[in-house]
Specification:
Strand 2 and strand 3 form a beta hairpin. By secondary structure, this protein is α+β, with helices and mostly antiparallel strands. The two termini are 26 Å apart. The protein is globular, with a radius of gyration of 15 Å. Helices cover 32% and strands 23% of the residues. It has a 6-stranded mixed beta sheet. The protein has one domain. The longest helix is centred in the last third of the chain and has 18 residues.
Length: 148
């Protein structure tokens, strides 16, 4: 990709899973609210290349961090501090494979949005961590089995 294309489109193709889209539609039945969350998710196209495990940082005007407490491959959380559809403290959970692998003929590596939720406590519950881990494992098995 050229420098201009990278500046316009970012380094990643952001792909929501069906489950994440269903969660977003259930949480935000108003189309405008759903689109506002989608706009925030698309900022992940400009997510920096991961160089150090366990880091966080900024992507656009939002901050992100790897989720602590997950075993195996880790997902990350994108913190959305805006109030959208009456919900505050929203978290968009996403996963990026450890290597930049081109799949399905796409020219950019992918970031998978695996969940959207309102975080009500400081920590994720054990159930949340197990769900996120299972979703990451499914993506890895379906899309990256040849690269594991």
């Amino acid at each position: 990709m050229s420098e201009i294309e990278t500046a316009l489109f970012g380094d990643y193709h952001v792909t929501p899973t069906h489950t994440a889209m269903k969660e977003a539609m259930d949480l935000f039945p108003r189309y405008g609210d759903y689109q506002e969350v989608r706009r925030h998710a698309l900022k992940l196209a400009f997510w920096p290349k991961r160089t150090v495990v366990g880091v966080g940082g900024m992507v656009g005007d939002l901050d992100w961090e790897e989720i602590k407490g997950m075993n195996g491959p880790k997902a990350c959380e994108l913190r959305i501090d805006d109030v959208i559809g009456g919900f505050n403290n929203l978290r968009l959970i996403f996963y990026a494979f450890e290597k930049d692998v081109i799949i399905d003929g796409d020219v950019m590596p992918r970031i998978w949005v695996i969940s959207i939720m309102q975080k009500k406590t400081e920590r994720f519950s054990n159930a949340n961590l197990r769900i996120f881990s299972a979703r990451v494992k499914i993506i890895r098995q379906r899309k990256y089995a040849d690269y594991l």
